[in-house]
Amino acid sequence: MEGGLATEELEIELLLEALFQRFGHDFRSYDRPTLRRKLHQVMQARALNTVSSLQDRVLHDPGAGAALLRALSVQPAALFDDPEQARQLRIVLAASLRASAVPKVWLAECAGPEQAWSLAILLAEEQLHLRTEIYATVANEEMLAAASLASFPAERMEQYQESYFRSGGTAQLADYFDVQDGRATLRASLRNRITWAQYNLVTDASFNEFQLIICQRALPDFGPMLRQRVMRLFHDSLSLFGVLGLDREIADGDELAASYQPVFPHQHWYKRIG
User: Fold this and answer.
1) CA distance 250 to 246
2) What value does the mean pLDDT take over residues 12-38?
3) Phi and psi for 165 in degrees, rounded to 5?
4) Closest CA relative to residue 244, chosen from 108, 121, 82, 126
5) How confident is the model over 191-198, as a mean pLDDT?
6) Residues 214, 238: contact at Cβ < 8 Å?
7) Is CATH 3.30.70.330 what the domain over 83-272 is classified as, yes or no?
8) How far is CA 6 from the centre of its chain?
9) Where in this chain does the record put each CheR-type methyltransferase domain (predicted)?
10) Distance (Å, rounded) from C-alpha 110 to C-alpha 206?
11) Which of 75, 129, 138, 224 could be cross-linked to 124 through a Cys-Cys bond (beta carbons 3.0 to 4.6 Å apart)?
């Protein structure tokens, strides 16, 4: 490793240790190339030349620390921003939840309120919302606080309506929302089915049994050892014949591959069979 890269690698190690010690967020096992790219983007936006200067800013400026945690965390999703995934999810909900008296769904490393709201709307359209509990977990307090106050500009509704139609929706999306002062918020009857909590996939243990676990935006950021740790956590948290929705394939050589079978060909939805 060349001198400059070796120095930067040491700086990154020190920054990640500082984030863990100062804020309690452990990015030390994240995929290093992905992490480096995100750090460089933050440095460029703040006109900083070294990772050490970023560390100094983060440790002494609370706003800079919060901004870096946001940049390293899962980026927010828009309502129905992946119509094909939503189409598949409609099928998965019916197959995985109908047999349970009180089914539970875990949105692990949830990509913001609009991802959770999309799920709540799909549950309503499958007539499952009244008995299904959604647990949406995020890694830091700031994201948790933002979720409880979330809304979006009402003028986005037309754009979201088109994505909703492409996901298989047939209703008027606006019927699921209350609009006040130009801002739209999911109706309380659906919003109340979502429990938000701070949870760290890197360090925390299994906290419930779920019939469906969805983690479709975080895994690419994880290094190999952390991915295996998280996959074991999901296995311990998923009921037999429950469904796991990922953003990567479970490879044949993965430790738990034999415990799952694909729900769809060439897609990343898996039923636990062992």
Assistant:
1) 9
2) 91
3) -60, -45
4) 108
5) 96
6) no
7) no
8) 32
9) 1-246
10) 16
11) 129
Across the strands, what pairs with 54? none
**What 3-state class would DSSP assign to 130?**
coil
- Residue with structure tokens 């479709």? 216
Whether this prediction's pTM lies above 0.85 is answered by yes
Amino acid 210: pLDDT: 98
Query: How many residues does the structure list for the chain?
Result: 274
CA-nearest of 78, 60, 62 to 70 is 62
Question: Among residues 63, 75, 68, 61, which one has the least CA distance to residue 20?
Answer: 68
Is the pLDDT score of 117 beyond 80? yes
CA distance 225 to 37: 20
State how far the Cα of 85 lies from the Cα of 66, in Å rounded to an integer: 30
d(CA 241, CA 133) in angstroms, rounded, equals 18
As annotated, the residues of the chain forming the CATH 3.40.50.150 domain(s) are: 83-272
Q: Do 237 and 206 form a contact (C-beta atoms < 8 A)?
A: yes
